[in-house]
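Appendix B. One record, verbatim.
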Amino acid sequence: MSAEAKPRARSSDRVSATAQDGRDARRRAPRRRAADWDPRVRVARPLDRLRAQEAVRDPQLLPLRYARMASSPWAYLRGAAAVMAADLAAVPHSGLDVQMCGDAHVLNFGFWASPERQLLFDARDFDETLPGPFEWDLKRLVTSVHVLAASEGLVAGCGESSAAAAVEGYRTAMRRYATMGELDVWYDRIPPDVPLKRLSSQHAEAAVRLIEKQSRKRTHHGAAKQLATEEGGRRRIVRDPLKRVDDGLSQEQQVAAYEQLYDTYLASIPPHLRRLVSRFTRVDSVRQVVGVGSVGMRVWLHLLEGDSGQQPLFSQVKQATASVYEEFLGPSEFSNHGERVVVGQRLMQTASDIFLGHLRVDGFDYYVRQFRDMKIIPRGDQIAGYLPQFAYACGHALAKSHARSGDPAAIAGYMGRGAAFADGILGFGRAYAEQTHADHAELMAAVGSGEVHAAEQAW
């Protein structure tokens, strides 16, 4: 019988086969053993792994990076993805690969505007994205919940219950995705009310009001009111920047530098979007410092104006380097790390920024995205009052992202319905949260001894 004539396996048979693949993976990585963590498996000090990242960052900003990381265990965790990547790689894993977020801490989930201008809840940061074992993202999420709960001074037990909610949100959603068709998984969306479910009506109403207020403020027009002023009939960025791109450059040099960025970016986006982008003209540019883990990366903020004179557009161009997981999982299939980030984001999110693109200039890779544009990034104090509900929604969103790129039936088969998987992941989260506090103390000691220079300063 020819290959074309062979009968295809029934859908139920294929699901059963992949579920069995997941159960077989338990032999590679027993679920309860996921709780095992022993710092003696480390082959390098955490500080040495952080220092190894200095070569790709702006040296002027390294003291600021270490100052921010030293400010708290929570800030340390955000900046130490490279340390955790090495630690995750040092223990057995399931081998069930998905497109990992790579930095799935609890505040890397938030609200986005779809191209149809509807708010959705999803993962939001993809600088470290790479195909890899699904449980690595979940371990980072659970660890982060413990560290954030301690950082916010929440009552004893809140971190544990919130971490358990994150795992349960993931498991429940993944089991559902395992029963769905491919297109149904791909089109699934998480509306903004999901993180607020099971709240009292008073708390839910207050959270809804905050989300609506922030979504109105975090538009391009709102950003222009906050960040720009008019000088000589021309808009200029006045807030957030540390340094202007055009410092010391002639007008001709400014135009040439931007056109180099513009031309390489246009080559990475679909033709129909090039027509839209061509209707905007750059009017100002500044350099930014963003986040904690990203401090030292080269980031530019461009203010553009539409031909209509009515539409400002803030475009952020951010440096992308190799994912911290490539050392352990192999190099990305993309030669440009900006493209790696863009493709990973589109694969993991239900709806992504239409302006996403990538470029390479002077040997550095970058990705491009809209700045703000209804993006709502929560703060720890804002979600502290409903951390279990928010963590549950993060688990749900992570499962959705993983189901789009991985095999949900296999992952569901690996997790099973008993307590073994949850016990293993939660045990790791507790142990690694303690490790994070110890590693933060080590960084503080290195700053105190002068081994590491840390300074809260602009350049």
